[in-house]
Amino acid sequence: MAQSLAQTGTTCQLTTHPIPSLPAESPPDYVLVRFLASPVNRVDFMVLNNQYPLKPKYTSPTTNTPIPGFDGIALVESSTSPLFSPGDLTLPRDLGLGTWRTHAILPASSLLKLPPSVSTISPIDASLIRSGALIAHLLLTNPSTPLKAGDHIIISAGTSTVSQFLIQLAKHRGIKPILVIRDRPNPEPVKAELLALGAEAVLTESEVEAGLLLPKQPIILALDSVFGKTGELLAASLAPGGKFVLVGLLAGPKASMQLTTQHLFNRQLSFLPFRGSEHLKRMGDEQTESLIGEIARMFVDGTLKRPRVKVVDWTTAGEGEVEKALKEAVELAKGEAGHVKTVWKLT
């Protein structure tokens, strides 16, 4: 039987239904996939709370309610598309595919294929590529914010998956990342963990506000996933002519930042948005799949290591255990000091 974690209000319910199949009369260019793993991302919480502009595109055949999940890794089981064959590993190209389920019939155009050379990648690692390692790579190679070895950058949400991939990728390029983490009673173990990954420095928000421990070299780029007060702190740390890139809205969709003439005229800072999906569209299919293959190989050869995650195995979870794990993930995400990402192991 197939399973889907479908939305009920601001929570979800695990439902069971027959495994779908591609009928003989299926139109061309469709694939039946079996999802192997899917992370629970911040954007998923925003979708559940109707705070995100993009909604799930698919519904549960049992309850006819939306199936959340924007990210994951799936194995092709059958295909009417010449682009996919049984055994291919795929990532979502489109957002809103409803990856919190074990099986799905999807248009071939909504998927990206991993090269056969990385078929040994761990499903948990692969599930973190699309919204984690790939985004980190794009941020470091964005033509609008060119970087070179020795440059200092500052990054908020320092314990996030994207930030932890950013550290590792920056280290390989000689870029020096300064991470900002939320205040907590004992930040030293978290700091030590992030420094070991390759961070140049790790500061709490209070330390940034006090002007402590910032490097003597100018900070030319701020990558902010929080906005609000945290964004203001990052903007204040930039050298004249620096660039501020808005990556996410962890402070909420209604958060705001105060900009003054000091930012725009005296210091001549630039403020830029970042949307990963838009960058991938501009890159095109061939270049995107090549980049994903490159990142996947970095997992396989050990160059990239995933952050600590909490794996919840649907195949062994007892009644109500998956729903409970989701509620716990939502509550932890509301906390003051970050959380460990939950990843569904689906099949």
TrEMBL record:
<keyword id="KW-0560">Oxidoreductase</keyword>
<dbReference type="InterPro" id="IPR036291">
    <property type="entry name" value="NAD(P)-bd_dom_sf"/>
</dbReference>
<keyword id="KW-0809">Transit peptide</keyword>
<protein>
    <recommendedName>
        <fullName>enoyl-[acyl-carrier-protein] reductase</fullName>
        <ecNumber>1.3.1.104</ecNumber>
    </recommendedName>
</protein>
<feature type="region of interest" description="Disordered">
    <location>
        <begin position="1"/>
        <end position="20"/>
    </location>
</feature>
<keyword id="KW-0521">NADP</keyword>
<comment type="similarity">
    <text>Belongs to the zinc-containing alcohol dehydrogenase family. Quinone oxidoreductase subfamily.</text>
</comment>
<keyword id="KW-0443">Lipid metabolism</keyword>
<keyword id="KW-0496">Mitochondrion</keyword>
<dbReference type="GO" id="GO:0019166">
    <property type="term" value="F:trans-2-enoyl-CoA reductase (NADPH) activity"/>
</dbReference>
<dbReference type="InterPro" id="IPR020843">
    <property type="entry name" value="ER"/>
</dbReference>
<keyword id="KW-0276">Fatty acid metabolism</keyword>
<keyword id="KW-0444">Lipid biosynthesis</keyword>
<dbReference type="InterPro" id="IPR051034">
    <property type="entry name" value="Mito_Enoyl-ACP_Reductase"/>
</dbReference>
<feature type="compositionally biased region" description="Polar residues">
    <location>
        <begin position="1"/>
        <end position="18"/>
    </location>
</feature>
<feature type="domain" description="Enoyl reductase (ER)">
    <location>
        <begin position="9"/>
        <end position="344"/>
    </location>
</feature>
<keyword id="KW-0275">Fatty acid biosynthesis</keyword>
<dbReference type="InterPro" id="IPR011032">
    <property type="entry name" value="GroES-like_sf"/>
</dbReference>
